[in-house]
Write a structure and sequence with these properties.
7 helices, 5-stranded antiparallel beta sheet, alpha+beta, 5 strands
């Protein structure tokens, strides 16, 4: 199963939840977004952030889940009943908020570094088969999105859907 991952910017968690509760449109259509199919925010994106920082991947985020709301079925305080496979925690969509440190690192992407970042990130197993030009375009788009979010004092989120 490959997840669709859409990165977007929003003012806050409340704005994201409002869109999710309505369920009329996905957040990628409600907010400025970048489609990044398969670029998971916890596994793949940290490799790009590491390339930007010149180090090894660190777990910057996502810091917390924004959607669905409520207690996760695997949480220690959840009732010890069988997991409902129709539970939103099991079916999605899911939205996570990235740390502002990740946003700021992405906002620092400079056009002149795109070839180098593409080469470095392109060595990551999860993106090895992505065309170089597509990877470079994605890095650029994520940088633009992050710069706009930072400028407008917004946060970055990732919506994950099947």
């Amino acid at each position: 199963m490959e997840l669709r991952t859409d990165y977007f910017r929003a003012a806050d968690e409340a704005a994201v939840r409002k869109v999710m509760e309505r369920g009329e449109r996905p957040p990628a259509e409600s907010f400025e977004s970048v489609q990044a199919r398969g670029i998971d925010p916890t596994v793949v994106l940290p490799h790009l952030v590491a390339a930007l920082r010149g180090g090894s991947p660190v777990k910057d985020g996502p810091d917390r889940s924004v959607w669905p709301t409520g207690l996760q079925p695997w949480h220690p305080e959840a009732p010890s009943t069988a997991v409902d496979l129709d539970d939103p925690w099991m079916t999605g969509p899911w939205v996570v908020e990235l740390s502002d440190e990740t946003r700021d690192a992405l906002a620092g992407i400079e056009r002149r570094r795109l070839p180098q970042l593409t080469t470095q990130w392109g060595r990551t197993d999860e993106v090895k088969n992505v065309e170089r030009i597509e990877l470079m375009r994605l890095i650029h788009q994520l940088g633009v999105l992050a710069r706009r979010a930072k400028k407008d004092d917004q946060h970055l989120y990732c919506a994950l859907t099947e």
